Automatic annotation (TrEMBL), chain A:
Keyword Lipoprotein in annotation: yes
Protein's UniProt name: Extracellular solute-binding protein
Transmembrane segments: none
UniProt keywords, alphabetically: Cell membrane, Lipoprotein, Membrane, Palmitate, Signal
Annotated signal peptide: 1-21
TrEMBL record, chain B:
Pfam families assigned: SBP_bac_8
Origin: domain of life: Bacteria
PANTHER family in the cross-refs: ARABINOSE-BINDING PROTEIN-RELATED, DIACETYLCHITOBIOSE BINDING PROTEIN DASA
SUPFAM superfamilies: Periplasmic binding protein-like II
Transmembrane segments: 12-29
Name of protein: ABC transporter substrate-binding protein
The keyword NAD belongs to this UniProt entry's keyword annotation: no
Keyword annotations: Membrane, Transmembrane, Transmembrane helix
Length: 449, 487
């Protein structure tokens, strides 16, 4: 008996230690629900406006601690500053935008979601491909984030006017150039005489914006910001510029600019100006591209509103420069409560939330969860899910102060194109000027070494 | 020999322990193992459970009667998030339709909309309950195990009484009035705090002790309720059981010329002259909209100029909002309940409901209407609305269930839940005071009363003469005022 007393005592104390150790660990596991969830979000106001109601409904006992990234309205951290702050704060859940997300993913600050998704029975294919594709656009090609919504646009057209002038309305899958051509046909069929434009983008009808979009749609840019070089002396640019000049001359597009009030560098439009700017809503433009759901079935003047899938790239008709994913959710690589962060992400992308969003209205974007296609009765919606955003070239480090450059380049482009429209410049002269003077502006707006 | 034996023993123990620990870990860490082997339950089931939606696959449309220009989203949105298959259509009534029973009745007779859930002022609720138009809720509360005991009992009694013994509706909000006390000022001037349940006389006596200290002991108004001296006088008198205007057989009579009223006027006039009773600065309501900031820039209690004031639930919220905006203030304030005379004629100031939510007895969607009702009056919404933010809730300022008052320390709101008003009194009062016929006469009373009290303050009249004149003028006015319902 005595022989076994000592080993027995050791056994018992080891057992107790093991029990205590295991007990401590399992307590941490069970307390996951009681642990605080630290969420990085722009501001408390933004969180309350966009997310709080949903998270509180699904997880009423959850304690949330906000890491406010941009608490002062009007003041925003630069991409680099934002990334630094995330690195420092180590939040669990990050509710951010797509371009900020890209920087965080590149810096290795986010958790790879693939294992979590598999573990939850979720597949990338459950979602709008355009979104998962964008989320994987990082050095590793891994899925570090999800967005529960995307912002598709559609090509709105004035069905009544098309009927009136006997012009075949647009169909989904047209390239931007084909849309412009249709606009010109509309103008010559009588729209022009009655002062109705072919195509008009509210706030974005000036040459710079038109060409910017046209270029994006075809995968070309004005400038290579990494090398600080103008890139407009290409056959494709010549084609687009020539086209656009003709469209203004023909009356398909309009260069009438309604100026807003500029206060502290920000342009404000009051209600009157806004109405002046949105010519489509007034029945003064045959077509416009706008967010899905932007217009009701009838305009104020009674004209019937129709819409089709938005313009696509002529080189890849499954891609459009008019499809957007603005938000992103991700889990911090050093999150202490990644489990809860993932629960929240799962909920926000769930079938349940698809139904909630549908019920509450679409001004928050369209659910990326494909189960939305079972809820939406709109035939166009299925097409939208099959059009992905254009993949923009990876942003290598820019050596130009882009905002300042754009301010001056905008003026240059708008003035020069206006002159060309009036016949005061040939297309070649126009391009040469843009290239040469654009280059000077780039030199002047280089970032300090 | 023994050494060898010990090492064998240790090795045995070690071996045994290893086995036990490995087996034990397998059992302790079984959840992790499950996850590693992808054996967790499917997440969609977990989420469905989370929300526990009884209407998950049913398409239901509810018509909810609300008030125009009132933002119902704070209830609607959270409810839809939990029950996305339910559609809520709002039927917004004009304020006058909602608050004037004749107009309400006329509207309902003309309308072909079947309302599922009503949102009613207490008076209109009483009428519909009496007409048998509402669904009884006692059985539903019991069926769903909802503990009504935690709600403020006088409030529940009031609603029950309004339904002649049965609960035909319920409310999320509670309105009341209590004494606000600045503890720091009392401490600074070495004056003992008033006690819970003090009478107003005792409280005014306490206020008088601040004479000569440079701060007021009492202010006549608070926040947006900026009573002047004469309205304060009326408030004190009524709380002590004195009558101002009385409605009897469709006619109003005034009773201001009494010894009791003289005592109140004396106390107030003396207080003002002696400098311990401060009159709240006037608010110019005609200057367009008046902001919260404008009011609180000069508000006496918030600026530490008075040791006490009498304020309601709305003032409690406004004061707290002011403090949070200022990043906290040095004010150290609490609320204390005081004694109301059992015969007080303004008990509806001390016990009021928010909107009363009730289910139409004829509703075809009673189950869904009930879910919405219990959600609106339930804890989750109450706790959320209790938070002091820039977006103040549209309904009564305090929670019907005091356990939902979680955002501020209890000592700040306790006073409101200690005011002992009589539900029966409240019910008979609301029949009168919310009536337009009464309201117009009351405004005239305030006007005349102010004139007379001013004359007393500037020394041109004695209180006896002032009250006598006031009575005479009121008698004359009311004689020509006509009968209620005479158009």
């Amino acid at each position: 008996m005595n022989r076994y007393r000592r080993p027995l005592a050791m056994l018992l104390s080891f057992l107790m230690l093991a029990v205590m150790a295991a007990g401590c660990t399992s307590n941490t596991e069970e307390a996951a629900d009681e642990k605080v969830l630290r969420i990085a979000v722009d501001s408390e106001n933004y969180y309350n406006y966009k997310y709080a109601d949903y998270i509180e409904a699904a997880f009423p006992a959850l304690k949330v601690e906000l890491v406010e990234m941009n608490p002062e309205p009007g003041t925003y951290l630069s991409v680099a500053e934002y990334t630094e702050k995330i690195k420092k704060e180590k939040p669990d859940l990050i509710l951010t935008n797509d371009f900020q997300y890209r920087s965080l993913a590149t810096e290795g600050l986010l958790l790879d979601l693939s294992t979590l998704m598999t573990g939850s029975g979720m597949k990338e294919d459950d979602f709008y491909t355009g979104m998962t594709e964008l989320m994987k656009r990082n050095a590793d090609g891994k899925l570090y984030g999800l967005s529960s919504i995307f912002e598709p646009t559609v090509l709105f057209y004035n069905e009544s006017l098309f009927k009136e002038y006997g012009v075949d309305p647009p169909t989904g899958g047209m390239s931007l150039e084909e849309v412009y051509e249709l606009g010109s046909r509309f103008v010559s069929a009588g729209g022009g005489k009655d002062g109705v434009l072919g195509v008009h983008q509210a706030y974005l009808n000036m040459p710079l914006d038109v060409l910017d979009k046209f270029g994006s749609a075809e995968g070309i840019r004005f400038v290579n910001y990494a090398t600080g070089q103008m890139t407009m002396e290409t056959p494709l640019w010549r084609h687009l510029i020539e086209k656009v000049v003709q469209l203004y001359q023909f009356g398909t597009l309009s260069m009438v600019e309604v100026k807003g009030k500029v206060v502290d560098g920000v342009t404000y439009f009051d209600e009157n100006t806004s109405t002046l700017l949105d010519l489509y809503s007034k029945g003064e433009a045959a077509m416009t591209v706008a967010y899905y759901g932007a217009y009701p079935p009838q305009l104020d003047n009674g004209d019937i509103v129709g819409y089709v899938a938005p313009p696509v790239s002529s080189s890849d008709r499954q891609r459009s420069a008019h499809m957007y994913v603005f938000t992103a959710m991700a889990i911090g690589a050093e999150a202490e409560n990644s489990e809860m962060a993932w629960n929240v992400m799962r909920f926000l992308t769930s079938d349940h939330m698809v139904k909630v969003r549908t019920k509450l209205g679409t001004n928050e974007g369209v659910s990326t969860n494909k189960s939305y296609l079972n809820v939406s009765t709109d035939p166009v919606m299925k097409q939208l899910f099959e059009i992905n955003p254009i993949i923009k070239p990876s942003d290598a480090k820019s050596i130009i102060n882009e905002m300042k450059f754009m301010e001056s380049f905008r003026e240059l482009m708008n003035t020069e194109v206006a002159a060309a429209v009036k016949g005061e410049r040939s297309i070649d002269e126009l391009i040469a000027t843009l290239q040469k003077e654009g280059q000077s502006l780039l030199e002047v707006n280089k970032k300090p070494e | 020999m023994s050494k060898r034996k010990s090492s064998t023993a240790v090795r045995t123990v070690a071996a045994l322990m290893t086995v036990i620990i490995i087996l034990g870990s397998g059992w302790w860490f079984r959840d992790d193992l499950k996850e590693m082997l992808n054996l967790t339950e499917k997440p969609e089931d977990a989420l469905a459970e989370l929300l526990n939606d009884p209407f998950a696959d049913k398409d239901i449309t509810l018509t909810v009667q609300t008030m125009l220009d009132l933002n119902f989203d704070p209830f609607k949105k959270p409810f839809i998030i939990r029950h996305p298959s339910v559609t809520i259509n709002l039927l917004g009534l004009e304020m006058t339709t909602l608050y004037e029973p004749d107009k309400f009745k006329a509207y309902m007779e003309k309308s072909d909309q079947t309302i599922d859930l009503y949102m009613l002022p207490l008076k209109q609720f009483t009428i519909l309950a009496a007409e048998g138009k509402l669904k009884g809720l006692d059985a539903l509360f019991k069926k769903h195990d909802i503990d009504l005991d935690s709600y403020y009992p006088p409030l529940v009694d009031l609603i029950r009484l309004a339904g002649d013994g049965e609960l035909y509706g319920f409310t999320a909000g509670y309105s009341s009035t209590a004494l606000f006390v600045n503890r720091k000022l009392f401490e600074e001037h070495g004056i003992p705090l008033p006690e819970e349940g003090d009478s107003l006389d005792e409280i005014l006596d306490t206020a008088a002790r601040f004479k000569g200290t440079g701060v007021y002991g009492m202010a006549t108004g608070s926040g947006f309720t900026n009573r002047g001296l004469s309205q304060f006088t009326a408030f004190i008198g009524q709380s002590n059981g004195l009558k101002t205007l009385t409605l009897e057989k469709n006619r109003l009579t005034a009773s201001l010329n009494s010894k009791s009223w003289k005592e109140v006027w004396q106390q107030v006039a003396d207080g003002y002259k002696d400098g311990w009773l401060g009159e709240s600065p006037p608010i110019n309501w005609n200057a367009g909209s008046v902001t919260h900031n404008q009011i609180f820039a000069q508000e006496l209690f918030a600026n530490g100029k008075t040791a006490m004031t009498i304020g309601d639930g709305a003032y409690y919220r406004d004061l707290s909002l002011y403090e949070s905006r200022e990043g906290g203030t040095s004010l150290d304030w609490i609320t204390i309940p005081y004694e109301i005379d059992p015969a007080a004629t303004n008990q509806s100031n001390y016990l009021g409901t928010g909107f009363v939510y009730a289910i139409n007895a004829k509703s075809q969607n009673a189950e869904a209407a009930w879910e919405l009702l219990r959600f609106i009056v339930g804890e989750e919404m109450a706790v959320k609305n209790d938070r002091i933010t820039d977006n103040q809730p549209f309904d009564a300022s305090l929670a019907a269930n005091p356990s939902s008052m979680k955002s501020l320390p209890e000592e700040k709101w306790r006073g409101f839940y200690g005011m002992k008003a009589d539900p029966a009194h409240v019910l008979s009062e609301i029949q009168v005071v919310s009536d337009k016929y009464y309201g117009i006469a009351r405004d005239e009373f305030f006007k005349l009363s102010k004139e007379q009290l001013n004359a007393v303050i500037d020394g041109s009249k004695t209180i006896d003469d002032a009250l006598s004149d006031l009575q005479a003028k009121l008698d004359e006015y009311l004689l020509n005022y006509g009968e209620r319902g005479a158009g």
